[in-house]
Amino acid sequence: MGLLRGRRRWLAAALVLVVVVAAVLVLVGHRGPGYRTQDATVRVLTGPDGRTPVDLDTRLYLPDGASAASPVPAVLLAHGFGGTKLSESGDARHLVRRGYAVLTWTAEGFGRSGGQIHLDSIDWEAKDVSRLIDRLAARPDIAKRGGDPVVAVVGGSYGGAVSLLAAGTDHRIDAIVPSITWNDLGRALLPNHADGAAPGVFKSQWAGLLFGAGSGDLTSGLTTGSTPTPSPVLPSGTPAGSPGCGRFAADVCAAYQELAVTGRATAATDAILARSSPRTVTSRITAPTLVIQGEGDSLFPLDEGAANAREIAATGTPVQVFWFTGGHDAGDGTRDDQERVTSLTDRWLDHYLRGEGPTPSTGFTFSRVSGIDETAASGNASTAYAVAGDPGTDGTGRVDVALPTRSAQIASPPRGTPSAITSLPLAGGLGAFTGSFTLAVPGQHADVESAPLARSVTAVGAPTVRVRVASPTGDAVLYLALYDVDPSKVNGRAVLPQGLVAPVRLTGLPRSLADARPVQVRLPAVAYRFAAGHRLRLTIATSDQAHLGPTDPRTYTVAVDGPVALPTVDAHALPAGGRGWRIALLVLVAALALAVALAVLLARRRQRLAARPVDEAASDVPLVVRGLRKEYADGFVAAARVDFAVPRERVVGLLGPNGAGKTTTLRMLMGLTRPTRGEVLVFGQRLVPGAPVLERVGALVEGPGFLPHLSGRRNLELYWRSTGRPAAEARMEEALAIAGLGAAVERRTGKYSHGMRQRLAIAQAMLGLPELLVLDEPTDGLDPPQIAAMRQVLRDYAREGRAVLVSSHLLAEVEQMCTDVVVMNRGEVVASGTVEELVGDSPTVLLDVDDGARAGQVLDGLGLVWSDEEDELVVETAGRPVALVVAALVEAGVGVRRVQPRRRLEDAFLALVGGDTRGSGDR
């Protein structure tokens, strides 16, 4: 009783803390002044001549205290490409609660605004910002300085570029905070990381996404943190674009179509991109600038932000730079960095708009993922480092890592297909922090690998390497990537930092490598730690899914010429930021977590006392299913109660009509859906996602899935690598022998028939020769000889001490393949046992006769139903004694060699389910 009272006191204390923390959160969430909003359609005069009227959809957020007597500074908050005035509402609410008037608007060509998309042209979208500032200047509740409104422009991606272009043309702007944006739009969309003046390589995948968002009038918001606000209604007075151009201006649309077809920019296209490039005005920007650039960004990489900072700072304008762990590919970055971005922006605006706080530094800060934090939005924690001065992407030091200089020949495929996969636009962080989601195509790349690093190196900036290239056509398009290889992992796990690749276009190349001059390639800038003992692998590839390369097949000869140079900086770690209320809140949350943890520990202690982790009685049984039930929220019961076992050396067939619950049961067995009740034991261990015992299970459930451009063998190899187990344990050759594909295993699976894919899928399930094999419709798509062979394979597989569970609709096949049967109907097991037990006494006999034609005449004369099955007669005796049937055949001169009672599994099945083959609608 004393222990029970103690538990109750702990739980009561935890509940009190929950209430206290909730109250604190409510107070924190509503701190500061209130605000009001004003929506309006604002007509601006814009365009090259400043006379074209365009209606912009706007929203003004005003603090409650703003008035002519108490004016407040203003922030124009610009959205990303495809967004609207509502996309930045979260940041707008944050800033208005800090006492700023915030103006958001929908850019030309999007949402309910008029006009067309000019890609932040200096003649259009940048001029729109000036016209909006005019409107703010006329308001008495907006603070003035020297007669001009006190105003800043903040934006990311598309909004970041317009803040730079506006600041370069309107000197009333007092501060800007551009993030994850570009400096030179032509270079960003057609990058070339090699020395020389050759044109760049078109980012076809990114450009296609952007054009699709604009031409379809979508409002998806391609900047991080945006909130989509669909507005498919085209405002009245919006000029109609050319067919297929949506709301893009005709010249911009034509430029994209030219690039998408040729991959090259003409002088006219270069001019259009230049009008949208901040580099044309950075020398005129006098507004203090906080440049925030994302490390996980294959659209506008770190070099673009570094160029903006370098060019603006050259004029004496204060500039601060922060590289954070987010970007167009990596989302908002770690939670640590989200707070840093907010804190830096607040301090920048507070000082340059209000004159509050010390002058922000003009240095350089970068973040690097430093560990795993399960409480963070991204699952990662980051550490920030400060550097004296701004080294850009060149670094202040250099570490050379030697690479082999051997040459290799690599092929460029026709039409660039199949292509390697490196970066994944808009992947939402998939692989962004690990860079592990990459795929190189055999024969299309060459790898050179360093010796293990003697010490760790943190690269901050753009690594460089020299290469030599020979081409029979005199030119080449290549993609260079620098991987981090951990030899301690299975097959040397290779990570491509942030999934970034360097496209290179070279011209004037010789045919022979001996005549080739070294070309220096600037790899993508990173902030990444290469650990001691790891290797550096430089990959030179001929294709990349994200870019548009040559369409004709080619072969290049390539070689590395010297070491790879890693840029370094002399940096010191910064303490974690935060405010007093956050610290207090963290203390309360920590106390709450402690109380809850103690309560959970007490509950788990009771569970551990009530149940052991391993059921010793079932420890040698491959599969035991107990009381399994699946009930959905709408009350539908897909599986009511399922109990059965799959012992060693048995092939067990799972049967049932459509809707019986077979598929749901298999999904629960494989952990694809969570049961409402019951348990699944694999060798006595309760099955949970990620359980080590799953290494002893192989499965084919819900059909095979393979990469179509890879061979069958390569697909199996990649699958096994994903398990993290040593290659030697795969038993690859035995699995391939089971598949029986012969030389076809070296062909691309995209050319496989359905039956070939099914056989490969079964081989995949058998990799490692698991002790328990679960197969859903394994003979689907196989022809009769293949079915017979598979039948024997599974029986032999089980005889070696393993177990097989097979779900199938082919009753005759199950009868010949399986040793045992489990029959389900309406979510329950209605029978189980050996095939012989279920078939039982038979009203049917099997007759082996020497004259089948004559025997058939005799049986017809007796009025019996019979059939010819595999040179034997199956006869329904209709209650007549079998001896009388045999006597009639002998009397007619038919020799009877064997008589065997026979009841088909189908008969037993239909008897068990009562002829109901419809079931209840399995899910």
Give me the secondary-structure topology:
Elements: H1 2-29, E1 35-46, E2 52-63, E3 74-78, H2 89-97, E4 101-105, H3 125-137, E5 144-145, E6 148-149, E7 151-156, H4 158-167, E8 175-179, H5 185-189, H6 204-215, H7 250-262, H8 267-275, E9 289-294, H9 302-313, E10 319-324, H10 335-354, E11 364-372, E12 380-387, E13 397-401, E14 407-412, E15 445-449, E16 457-461, E17 464-470, E18 476-486, E19 493-495, E20 502-506, E21 519-522, E22 526-530, E23 535-541, E24 554-560, E25 564-568, E26 571-573, H11 580-610, E27 623-631, E28 637-646, E29 650-655, H12 662-669, E30 677-682, E31 685-686, E32 697-700, H13 712-722, H14 732-739, H15 754-765, E33 772-776, H16 784-799, E34 803-807, H17 811-817, E35 820-825, E36 828-834, H18 835-839, E37 844-849, H19 852-861, E38 865-869, E39 872-876, H20 882-891, E40 896-902, H21 905-913
Q: How is this structure best described in words?
A:
The protein is of the alpha+beta class. It folds into four domains: 35-154 and 182-281, Rossmann fold; 400-568, Jelly Rolls; 617-838, P-loop containing nucleotide triphosphate hydrolases (Rossmann fold); 841-902, 2-Layer Sandwich (Alpha-Beta Plaits). Helices cover 28% and strands 26% of the residues. The chain contains 21 helices and 40 strands. Strand 10 (319-324), helix 10 and strand 11 (364-372) form a beta-alpha-beta unit. Helix 1 (2-29) runs antiparallel to helix 11 (580-610), helix 6 (204-215) packs antiparallel against helix 7 (250-262) and helix 14 packs antiparallel against helix 15. The chain is elongated. The two termini are 47 Å apart. Residues 1-32, 217-241, 373-379, 428-436, 578-585, 605-612 and 917-923 have low confidence and may be disordered. Residues 221-239 have a biased composition (Low complexity). Residues 623-851 form the ABC transporter domain.
